Amino acid sequence: MALKIAFIGFGGVGQALAKLLEEKKDQLIDQYDIEPCVVAVSDVMKGSVYNPDGLNINKLLTSIEETGSVENYSDKEGLKIGLTSLETIKETNADVIVEVTFTDVNTGQPAIDHCRTAFECKKSVITTNKGPVALAYKDLAALAKENNVFWGFEGTVMSGTPALRLPITSLAGNEISEITGILNGTTNFMFTEMENGKTYDEALETAQRLGYAEADPTSDVEGYDARYKAVILANYVMKKEIKASDVQCEGMRSITKDMVAEALAENKRWRLITRVKKDGNNVYASVRPEKLDVIHPLANVTGATNAIIYDCDLSGPIMLTGAGAGLVETGYSLLIDLIHLQSEKTIKEGGASE
Ligand code: HSE
Fold it and tell me: Are residue 242 and residue 137 in the same domain, yes or no?
């Protein structure tokens, strides 16, 4: 079944998904009955192209690589150039909007407006932007439901490591009383570097160079990035509505190289720990540096790797660990959402499901 896709934003993550759609096209058709057809791309820096009959992914990527713009796409027949992001959402024939814009996580914009407009136009959205889910989950989820469309955001927590879908699908039927995790790769990488003798500043500089940190690394080191992930876990996995301001948040700035060395001498390790805990009808969430005993499973998570433990009444504690960032990994999280979108569509339309 053809799935017409419009990219809103076409930076590293969007391009990573486009490459995966090309590389995996045989598997997508054979295994999942998905025939992806990219009809539009709209990016504030790289321009905008639309062809209702589909664009060639390799030609799009070549145009960017050679000229920095999609508007130099080589095949001009049937091509419309210059639609804005909102025009692309409203006026193209796309079934699904891949929302991967550069978004301000404090306001959630422009991603929130993109999601809202798409749902009002009865189009599905998949996104890796945390803002819409952390700041407007309830309203946007209701709007998607009202318009009978799909909203996927697997990549917002732990990128392509399925931290959201695993508890909802594979752990279904459990009561999850607490979620504990290392949900920010930058700070975990920094702690690991500091354990190897680097200073805080040297460790941060390396994390930035390797591309782990947010554009403004304050969000990582002050714990704001992990705080938004705590809100998403509370709202989506625990079905408890909280806001970012409800999460007690303390970053890692106060932890020095000496404190890291002292902890190691005591067989302990500092980690930036996110906790979301249910207590009756309430939920408490925090992000703060904790000194863990080396035998604690989270103490042995090193580098930019993330990990999460779900405390389940039936399964007991279940731990998931893997990459929490990276272009291919985050592009893959969008592919997971696309595959689930298609299987939900097939079920709704009464087709076979496996
Ligand atoms: N800056 C984030 C991190 C990227 O270091 O985990 C993924 O949200």
Answer: no
- Any atom of ligand 1 within 6 Å of the Cβ of 186: yes
Say how many Å lie between the CA of residue 186 and the centre of ligand 1. 6
CATH assignment at residue 208: 3.30.360.10
The domain in which residue 34 lies consists of 2-160+328-353
Contact call for residues 238 and 179 (beta carbons, < 8 A): yes
Which residue's alpha carbon is at the smallest distance from atom 8 of ligand 1? 325
> Do residue 185 and residue 101 come from a single domain?
no
Is there a contact between 152 and 332 (Cβ–Cβ < 8 Å)?
no
Catalytic, out of 4, 229, 268, 278: 229
Domain total in the chain: 2
Q: Do 252 and 265 belong together in one domain?
A: yes
State if pTM tops 0.85: yes
Q: Burial of 354 by CB count in 10 Å (0-12 exposed, 13-18 middle, 19+ buried)?
A: exposed
**Tens digit of each residue's pLDDT (9 = 90 or more) over 310-330:** 999 999 999 999 999 999 999
Active site residue 229: yes
